[in-house]
Every structure is written in structure tokens, then in C-alpha cells.
Amino acid sequence: MDFDSFLAPPRWKILEIITKKPSSPIEIADELKTSVAYVSQQLKLLEAGNLIEKQKTGSAEKGKPRTLFSPSKKFAHITLLTKNFTGKKMIDIDSHYETILKIWFSDHPESYHIEKLYWKLEDDLKDISAIIMTGKQNMELMIISDSKKIKSKVESYIGEIGNKIDCRVISSQSAESTENSIFLHKHPSFNENHLKGGKTK
User: pTM (2 decimals)?
Assistant: First the structure.
């Protein structure tokens, strides 16, 4: 499958919409300002490519049961171009590689150190409620944990690299919702709706 053409702007826009929340063809068409027939055609192609799945709900939409579409799996479409190698590949990813790719996409000038910090904390993720990148201009790393060990490990690493990362370790009771936030890690028991100030995006 040629993913460069398969993930052309119309279908990519649909994927962007349904990653935020499962959506019906009518909802997608409304957001894209196009016809339901066109959206349904694109959804069939994405479904044939095993990139999305559908689920019927009990609630009604214009008198009919709703069919909601959402991504069927996590994957990355990677293009690599170096002096001695070129390649394109679609790969399934787990939660760890999803985190690393989010860091790369952040364009943070110190993304290398953020990635290195994440791997240093990998064995202790069970003691971390969430790791969140916040802001766009002045990006900050917020680590929500009540563990003194985590706080000590993070502060030690930040000191080693000369405070190149703006990073805070805060308790779950003190965590606040902020705009333009990206979850790098979220413990299964963590409820982001409990953040002060509302829900973090």
C-alpha cells in the first residue's frame, strides 16, 4: 500500500478528528464542511486499510443508531533518508515508542534530554501518575508523582544536564490543568478530569 497517497489530506483530516474522540460520519462531515456521502467513502477506504474500526451505539442520530469510528491501532508511518539509507515503513507501536515519537514531534530544543529522562524513569513508571509536556512557546515538563524517589531522581538528572529542561515534580493533589498539553505517560488509575482547573487535553 502506498501510504503517501493513501494518507492524503482528506483521509488524514478524518484520522485527526477521530483520534480526538470517536465520531460519526455526520459529525465528521460537519467538521470538514463536506457531504456525508464523501466522508463515508473515505471511511470505507480507511476501514479497508485496517486503520479504523466502527462501533454502533444505542443513542440515535437523526432517528438512526449512531455508528462511531475510531483508530483501530497505534502505528507510525516513518520515512528515513540518510546518506547511506532510505526507507519508508508503517510500524505498529507500543506505549513506550508512542511516548518517544511524541517527544520528537514536540520540536523541543532539548528533546534528547527529555527522551533520556523518560528512559531513566522507565522502571519507575508505576509510581508516576502522569508525565505531561505543557505549553508551546515555553515548554515545561510536569511529572505527577507522590514518590520522593522520583523527585530525587528527576532533580538529580536535571542538575546533571545544567537545568536545560524546565521540569517540575508535583503531587497528585497539586497538579493543575494547562492548555496545549500532551500526555507522555498516564498511569491506568490516573483520572485527568481530577486535575485542578479542568481537563488537560
Answer: 0.75
